[in-house]
Amino acid sequence: TGPAYIAKLGAKLLKGMADRHPGTAKKDVRILDAGCGTGLVGVELEKLGFPKIYGCDLSQEMVDKAEGTGTYRELHGDINLEEPVTCFGDTRFDAILSCGVFTLGHVPPEALLNLVPLLSEDGVIVLSTRQRYTSEHRFEDWCRKQEQKGTLVLDEVIIGAPYISDEQADYWIVRPPSAAKSAKKVA
What we know:
By secondary structure, the chain is of the alpha/beta class. Helices cover about 35% and strands about 30% of the residues. It contains six helices and seven strands. It has a seven-stranded mixed sheet, sandwiched between helices. A hairpin with a 2-residue loop joins strand 6 (about 155-165) and strand 7. Helix 1 (about 1-20) packs across helix 2 (about 40-45). The protein is globular, with a radius of gyration of 15 Å. Mean pLDDT is about 85; it is low at about 180-185.
């Protein structure tokens, strides 16, 4: 399913980050589950050994259910991703995972720009989009335009991966523009 897939994909990327920064351990990695719903992604991340999981969602009712999992260090409800996310103060995240949020009738692609400022310099965003959303919003074209503007870096796209029984999803791996600058300096 989507939550398990995105959690494993995020964990794989975080392992790569830890390999590049040998002092980084799973116990130190801060992860935001943006649009956490009932907490399915958080539960999967905890199974993979990540203890610093934070979450937010538009629905306080969903956040209350996520709180029941005992997985999250901090949860916030009534958070609209179409507005700047300020509830975490100065905390920056090594990864932001968002499953089932960038879908028809939820948030537009522009909401992604409110997540980028929450990343650490070497952080990564992993999000799912249902394939209908990808097509209707011309999501890849939108991401490429943002790259040209210097607002984000589209690192990778996984097309047609598991999501729900009646529809596959595309998974997008996005980094802050600072990650591209630091990568260019190393090269």
